[in-house]
Amino acid sequence: MQENTEPILNRVAQSPLITFDLEDYYPPGKRIVVDIKDWLLDGFVLREKDFRVSTENHDWEQYQDAYVALTCSSEAIVPGWAFMLVTSKLQPFAKKIVQGSIEDLESAIYQRILENLDLSEFKDKPVIIKGCSKKPVPPNAYIIITDRLQPLVKSLMYGEACSSVPLYKRK
Fold first, then answer.
1. By CB count within 10 A, which of 41, 76, 157, 161 is most buried?
2. Which of 49, 150, 27 is nearest to 95 (CA)?
3. What's the pLDDT tens digit per position in 58-100?
């Protein structure tokens, strides 16, 4: 058997490919769901006076620097002003407030971050959007960053450098 004296090259490390990891932009902070069904009569009926009293007596300071998703887990029909009233109480404390699920909240957080991100360093470069993450990166964040990067980059891929899926290549 003949020995191979050629050095083993790490072509991934030598590649001009730039990895964009959405996990790097995950902001720390508590994520909290506020379910307003607890302030409805039997979880279904909104009585304005009682609802207002509940919001006045609630400890809003517990949401300091938190990201908050407002929801109603019952099938109650809730007027829009109810969520607006809760938002007005949360506003001095919370970093971000949305009506919806935790995933809606994460999506809104990422949308704000990614829309304000300077992406000039990726201009005319081959870019791979990293696929796996340990943090809860919402699916919509991948859509937002693809939309933002595509007009700038030479090529765009998804996954890992060793096994990526091509998405776009400038002609």
1. 157
2. 27
3. 999 999 999 999 999 999 999 999 999 999 999 999 999 999 9
The pTM of the full predicted model, rounded to 2 decimals, is 0.83
Residue 28 has pLDDT above 80, yes or no: yes
What would the two tokens of residue 170 be?
């400038």
Give the integer Cα–Cα distance in Å for 62 and 94. Answer: 9
- If one compares 162 and 75, the residue with the highest pLDDT of the two is 75
pLDDT at 152 exceeding the cut of 60: yes
Round to whole Å and give the CA distance between 38 and 44.
9
Task: Sort 76 into a burial class: Cβ within 10 Å, 0-12 / 13-18 / 19+.
Answer: middle
